Structures are given as structure tokens and as C-alpha cells.
Amino acid sequence: MSFTDVPGWDTHSWDSLPFDPFFIDEEGNVVLHPDNLDVIVESWFDETTGSTITDLDNPEDIIVDGGAFVDAYSSHAPEELIPGRIFDTLDFQVYQLLSDSSMIGFRIMNDMNENIEYRRISSAEETTLSQDLNQGDGTIYVTDASVLVAPDIATLQPGVIVINGEKIIYWERNTISNTLNHILRNRDGTGSPTTHASGTYVTDISASTQEIVDGDPNVWYNQGGGTATDGTGLEGSTKPQALFIKQRNAVVP
Q1: Nearest to residue 170, comparing CAs of 206, 146, 124?
Q2: Domain spans of the chain, in order of start
Q3: pTM over 0.70
Q4: Average pLDDT of the residues in 120-148
Q5: CA-wise closest residue to 119 among 162, 77, 89, 179
Q6: What are phi and psi of 117, to 5 degrees?
Q7: What does the pLDDT read at residue 58?
Q8: Beta bridge partners of 90
Q9: Band of the pLDDT at 200, cuts 50, 70, 90?
């Protein structure tokens, strides 16, 4: 269907077809005129090819380059003032087996706002869920709450844990009932399954206990003579970050 198929749609002399704000598509819907858009990405309900251009289940795979307010920092939207963006988070865990068969580890967390945190992984400050944790639950039941950080309300320092990649803040720890309360879930863009099963690891990542901050943040290994490092890695390193990590053993979940 074209403009001329709609009585009176384009009968006025001041209308200029390529710049009309609306258009009647092949299904009779009023849409923006294609000439006003930089690109059109569409998919059909019976599409099964998995193409990155047409698969709406993976919109982050669609790469659109060009002008007309569609670029790396903005996208087409009402009045072209509301940019579109896909947010994601990263929880990258690194483990190393030492020569004495002990394990050490740390995690790099890059949240949806691109804030990067480095946290030691410590089995001494780690417990497990004693009951399933569902998405709507307001209390977390753990095997031993005493190994987790006690929140400090006076200094506004909560306890922070991670369960299956979900970052959770809590403001109350009860070591008698082994519960965590006054919780804030899905922090910094992290997601969660419908249920975290009983027995799942609950790992402390509080800044007061696990944050790796001492020394030059870019130099964790001993410098070698004529080489970037001396080849001893974290196990042989005497840098503050390495010494901090090696104070605790880690367990691969």
C-alpha cells in the first residue's frame, strides 16, 4: 500500500513524499517513513535461521554503523533524544594451584556501569545456602553466617556476597538463625535464576575484607631483569596484591 492508496493522505501541495513523518506499511500499520531512518531491522515470528540480523533473541549481535543519529553512542528513538544501549556485567574468576597443592584465587567484576572491582576469593569467608533462595525471597538462609562480614550501619558499610554470579547486599546478619536480612538483590546489573539451590556457595566479596587495593594496581608480579616479570607468577610474587591474595586459600565452586 502506498500513500496514494489512502484518500487525502498526500493531496496537499505542501507535502513532500520522502519527508512525510508517517507511512502505511504492507500490513496497513502507520509507521515512520523509511526515508527518515538510517536502517530497518526486522524479524518474523516464524524465523528459525538464527541470523544475527534477524534473531531478536540476540539483539546485542546486531551491529549498525552509520550516521543519522545511529552510531556508537546514540540510536533512533522518539525525537532521537533517547539512546539505546545493551548493559551487561562480567564476573571473571581466576584460580591458581600452588606448589604445595593449595589453591588461591581472585575475581574481576566489571558491572553494568563499567566500574571494575578486584576481589580476593577466600574459602574462610565462604559458606553455602541451607535453603533454596527464590527470586522473591527477602531472607537468605546459610549454613554458617558467622564467616560472613557483619554489616556496619554506623559507617554505611554493608555486607556483600555473590551467589552464582548474583551480587547481593545485606544489612543484617544473624549468627543464631544463620540468616541474612534487609537484602538488596541483583546489584550492579547482575542477574539470578529463578532459584539458587540449597548447597550453592555463598561467597563474601565485601570491600572491607576482600578488596585488592594496595600497591600499584597494574603491577602484581615481581619485575624481572630484562623481562616484564621474573617468571614466578603470583606464587613467587612479593607485591602487596599477591601477598593479600595468598593470605587465604580458595575453593573452586
Answers
A1: 206
A2: 90-210
A3: no
A4: 95
A5: 162
A6: -125, 145
A7: 58
A8: 110
A9: very high
CA distance 137 to 180: 11
Q: Which residues are CB-neighbours of 82 under 8 A, at least 6 positions away? A: none
Residues contacting residue 144 through CB under 8 Å, at least 6 positions apart: 127, 178
Sheet (strand 201-204) strand order: 126-128, 201-204, 159-163, 166-174, 179-184, 140-141
**C-alpha grid cell, residue 28:** 496497513
- State the Cα–Cα distance between residues 189 and 159, nearest whole angstrom: 18
Q: Which residue has the higher pLDDT, 98 or 33?
A: 98
> Among 109, 114, 196, which Cα is nearest to 183's?
196
Contact 9, 21 (CB under 8 A): no
Average pLDDT over residues 19-29: 63
Tell me the C-alpha distance between 59 and 80, whole Å. 19
188 Cβ neighbours under 8 A, 6+ residues apart: 89, 109, 111, 112, 113, 115, 167
Report the Cα 52 to chain-centroid distance in Å: 22
Please, which residues bridge with residue 204 across strands? 161
In one letter, which amino acid is 109?
M
In 10 A of CB 56, how many CB atoms? 12
Spatial contact of 184 and 178, defined as CB atoms under 8 Å apart: no
> Which distant-in-sequence residues (6+ apart) come within 8 Å of 241 by Cβ?
118, 212, 214, 215, 217, 220
SS3 123: helix
